[in-house]
Amino acid sequence: MKRFHQLLIAICVLGLGACSSSEFERNFQTPPEEVQTAVYWYWISGNISKEGVVEDLHAMKRAGINRAFIGDIGQDGLYTERNVKIFSDEWWEVMHTALKTATELDIEIGIFNSPGWSQSGGPWVKPEEAMRYLTSSQSMLKGPQTANVKLDIPNKDFQHVRTIAYPAQQGMSQSVKSGDMKITLDKGVKSMAELKNNESNEITLSLGDTPITARSLVIYPSHRPMLTTAHLQAKVDGEFKTIADFKIDRSNANLNVGFIPYAPITVALPATTASEFRLLLDATSQAGGIDEIELSPIARLSSYAEKTLTKMCQTPLPYWDHYMWAAEPKLDDTAYGIDPEKVIDISDKVAADGTLSWDVPEGEWIVLHTGMTPTGVTNAPATPEATGLEIDKMSRHHVKTHFDAYIGEILRRIPEKDRKTFKVVVQDSYETGGQNFTDDMIKEFEATFGYSMLPYLPAYYGYVVGDEQKSERFLWDLRRFIADRVAYQYVGGLKEVSNAHGLTTWLECYGHWGFPGEFLQYGGQSDEIGGEFWSVGELGDIENRAASSCGHIYGKRRIW
Question: What is the torsional sign of CA 174, 177, 179, 185?
């Protein structure tokens, strides 16, 4: 009979207890009944049939396989003889046949909690239920005056969070951008946007007769991959001296490693007065380019995009120290930062259409209009009709809604008598990146840490609030909050709703391509965990250490 699907096997490892060598050999050759052997059962690009799933299940039974995890996977260009679209009448017939046959053969079935293997999303996920981040528009108003202005809304899927105002930082008007500087480039380089690959690059920034006391550097990269080590020098007492060494990594534009792919690179500087600066870029095959450079007296935090999970590890391997940074230079004068005591919540003065009506106090005021918007990451790899936004990983409520839309529909459509061996809800490895905001976050954050995050919202964009230490501690608390919620609200939430329906959860307890939590804490919230073996590279080392360590710490006796 012609086969219309693909079966991919996952290696399963179970502890057999303390055995003698002869007993171990005997158990290996003839596994006892309590040992399970399982497979990933991928249904590729709709290439499935009722006859095919029946044949597969009987083949599994003959081979001693007594557990199978169904994943509805989309792969472009593969196995195109059939295309049974998910949720079509024929798809439901195939799913019904698979679960009924598995019940008859006593083969335990797991189903991935969404189409694709990573991670939890689908076309049913609304923008206000998705993974989201804090976005904003910024305006300056001068008082005293009665303002009646329409605030900019960054995008159409904008959920207003808060609108705050604070006195403009000292020195804001003295910031200088590269368009107002004399730029000198290496010979043969036409513009900063097109730098030399495989060679070092040197950019000299001259301010003429007006020096600046620089406390921050901001680089706005061109929208091309860029990876290099950089050095900023200032000409002091007639010679150039290095005042900052830093890394620029915008090498991966995929949304799952950064929902703003070419986010600015910020560097905090020790207060340095000069009229000429030099940016040195080491040789790299990804020179990319720079759209704009800004030097400012205003205090900014280094790597704010990384510290807010806006840009994450650009490769599959976020080692333990990836999200650790060197201490910031001490701010010499807090007037160049934001006083948290002077931040005002003016949200009640903003109409639904974004119009601000406010009696502006005397002085220059920055108005920060903030809201949530989806990161844009979708479940993958899945067929087009099965693809949609990823569910909010910090909301137990939204996780439950997602479960109901997919697994819940299977429970409703397939009679209970025909799905008695459907036991497991499956999560693969986490590959969907970060988010940094969720519903009711301001309230929940204060309940968790005992202080309001409201005055610190500007730190989301790298502005120093209070001083560099207070701002860094806030961003640490932010990342701690996100990691905890991903573990307890997402993994714990899926376990809770699955258990309520008589199902257990199975999880690969690690993530790459942008993981916002901790492997062990994350895996500890699932009923079962597993790892993967890779024949090359270090990925398998990380994944299997995570699974075995998680099992040891949380008392999980079976590691798949």
Answer: positive
Q: Residue 96 is which amino acid? A: H
Exposure string over 429-441, b if 16+ CB within 10 A, otherwise e: bbbbbbbbbbbeb
Closest C-alpha among 544, 525, 526 to residue 535: 544
Tokens 């209009």 belong to residue: 369
- What is the phi/psi pair of residue 204, to 5°? -100, 130
DSSP codes joined into one string, 419-485: -TTEEEEEE--B-S----B-TTHHHHHHHHHSS-SGGGGGGGGTB-BSSHHHHHHHHHHHHHHHHHH
Determine the 3-state secondary structure of 503 from DSSP: coil
| N-to-C CA span, the chain | 32
Beta carbons of 297 and 212 less than 8 angstroms apart: yes
Are the C-beta atoms of 418 and 293 separated by less than 8 Å?
no
Contact indicator for 195, 287 with CB cutoff of 8 Å:
yes
- Residue 454 to residue 465: CA distance in whole angstroms: 11
Q: What digits encode the pLDDT tens for the residues 300-328?
A: 999 999 999 999 999 888 777 888 899 99
Query: Between 76 and 207, where is the model more confident?
Result: 207
Q: Tokens 């096997």 identify what position? A: 9
Our CA angle for 218, 220, 224, nearest 5°, is 145
For residue range 108-140, list pLDDT tens digits in order.
Answer: 999 999 999 999 999 999 999 999 999 999 999
State whether the Cα torsion 420-422-424-425 is positive or negative. Answer: negative
Rg (CA), the chain: 27
8-state DSSP, 556: -
Q: pTM higher than 0.90, yes or no? A: yes
Distance (Å, rounded) from C-alpha 167 to C-alpha 143? 10
Over residues 481-493, the pLDDT tens digits come to: 999 999 999 999 9
Integer Cα distance of 554 and 513 in angstroms? 25
Beta bridge partners of 268: 216
- Could you tell me which residues come within 8 angstroms of residue 419 by beta carbon, excluding any fewer than 6 positions away? 99, 100, 103, 109, 410, 411
